[in-house]
Amino acid sequence: MLIGELAERTGTSERLLRYYERVGLLRPERLPNGYRLYTDSDTTAVLRIRSLLAAGLLTRVIRQVLPCTSGTAAVRACPGVLDALRDELHALDRRAAELDAAREVLRDTIARAATERL
């Protein structure tokens, strides 16, 4: 299939699909006229990429994880992948803790401001 069909099947823009290729997440075959030729497995890969991006992973991590995933994004045994995923989870946990702390400061500030106005 050509890039337009892959874009339609996955709900991903052609520009983004070209970006995925540029960063090494997709490797479509090239026809003699330069057109990209994608397969059904590329459709699955794009959907996995989008899921992993939504989970907060960076493209450099996805490039490492993607070959080690199945259709349901369950990680198989690949050297270093679990460590990379654990590192990403720790980073997300740190960011979540920072957001929780910021939320508490905001709540306290709002509560103080509300009682001062009374």
Describe this structure in words.
- The protein is mainly alpha-helical and 118 residues long.
- The chain is 64% helix and 3% strand.
- The chain contains five helices and two strands; from the N terminus they run ααββααα.
- The chain has helices at residues 3-10, 14-22, 40-54, 59-65, 81-117, and strands at 29-30, 36-37.
- The chain has a two-stranded antiparallel sheet.
- The protein is elongated and about 75 Å long.
- The mean pLDDT is 89.
- Keywords: Coiled coil, DNA-binding, Repressor, Transcription, Transcription regulation.
- GO terms for molecular function: DNA binding.
- This is DNA-binding transcriptional MerR regulator.
SSE layout and pairings?
Elements: H1 3-10, H2 14-22, E1 29-30, E2 36-37, H3 40-54, H4 59-65, H5 81-117
Antiparallel strand pairs: 1-2
Summary, kept brief:
With 118 residues, the protein is mainly α. It contains five helices and two strands, in the order H-H-E-E-H-H-H.
Give the fraction of residues assigned to helices.
55-70%
- Per the CATH scheme, the topology name is Multidrug-efflux Transporter Regulator, Chain: A, Domain 2
| Beta-strand residue percentage | under 5%
Top CATH class: Mainly Alpha
Helix-and-strand structural type:
mainly alpha
Q: What is the β-strand count?
A: 2
Annotated CATH architecture: Orthogonal Bundle
Q: Whole-number radius of gyration?
A: 21 Å
Coiled coil: 82-109
Domain HTH merR-type: 1-68
InterPro entries: DNA-bd_dom_put_sf (IPR009061), MerR-type_HTH_dom (IPR000551), MerR_fam (IPR047057)
Keywords: Coiled coil, DNA-binding, Repressor, Transcription, Transcription regulation
